[in-house]
Amino acid sequence: MCYAIPGKVVELNGRHAVIDYFGERRQAYTDLTRPSPGDYVYAQGGFVIQTVPAQEALAILADWQELFFRLQQTDQKLAQRKRTLHEQANAVRQQFQGNSCCVHGILEFSNYCRNNCLYCGIRKDNRKLQRYRMSEQEILQAVEYAVNQLGFRALVLQSGEDFWYSEAKLCRIVREIRARFSVLIFLSLGERPRATYHKLYEAGARGALIRFETSDAEQYKKIKPESTLADRLGLIKDLRDLGYLIISGFLMGLPDPTAGVAQSGPRGQNGRNVLADIKRTAESGAEMFSFGPFIPHPETPLAAARGPRLATVLNAIAQARLMYPTAKILVTTALETLDPAQGARAGLMAGANSLMINITPQKYRRLYEIYPNRAGVEDDTPKRIDKLLELLHALGRAPTDIGVS
Fold first, then answer.
1. CATH code of the domain made up of 94-394
2. Region at 394 (left for phi over 0; alpha for psi -120 to 50; beta for the rest)
């Protein structure tokens, strides 16, 4: 199953290719692959990542055409109801984004971290956590499986802030992936020098997942004592200026760590904070919004804190969709963890249109424990993909990314 539909290039316009998909025209950057008019291509995250032989593309499009329009009709029908906040947000999503739903893979290649964030299970002071680092060969093998066997066209490479992976080593990994596989690479490495990210961009990375967690500078300093909000936002701006696609956002329901019994509410995150965080996400230039609920980890200083209710997280997704109709909004794994049975569906029906699937090798997956009991950790990846596709088809969503409007 491919997580992109081939489209036909109808014209080139500077850095952009104009691509036709079943009569709809979208644009995508040609920095990574330079097609010619008439070529069939895969686009992901707004970038052309691969040209496709015409015979192969036409066969795929023939398989997709009937399904694509049938899914579109289902999506439109579900989006007609506009009574509740979530239904209104879903209708706006359908109006501005159609039924396309990004499905990215995420590879968590190291759980070492030099930081001591108060909320995070892989913080350096968690002595009970078994640590791991994937070798370069293991990373490449995992990417090969994700791209060639599972059909992913976009992958996030994520780790703690682990400087064992030097600038040179990371660049070598990215270059090798780009040389061997037609895939869009996102990085989630934490805070590294601008110069390092510049070299990684030159090596072939094009996206960055980097959340700011809270737009409250005082709260940020309490929960992330090794950094400042200004530094974080400055790095996000640098990444944007370098040309990276940005995935950013915040933690929902962050408590005040100085409260007697840490909890969200007046001394932690409240409704006004959430709106400020949504606005900050948009102001950062993020193409994709990521709002993950705070889930307390037993081996952190916030172990006794209470996380937010599922409804609170869903309302934030809906508010973000109504405020920013053209944004891509992610259903995070943390949201799914709050309700493993219905969380993904609820997020998609509240206005979200992006998902990530964990493709980390099974022997490491449970060790990337940023919070406990993560959804999907024990699942067989192909079976998880099948369940996700079943959900998307039931909602009329196409598991594709067809460029940008």
1. 3.20.20.70
2. alpha
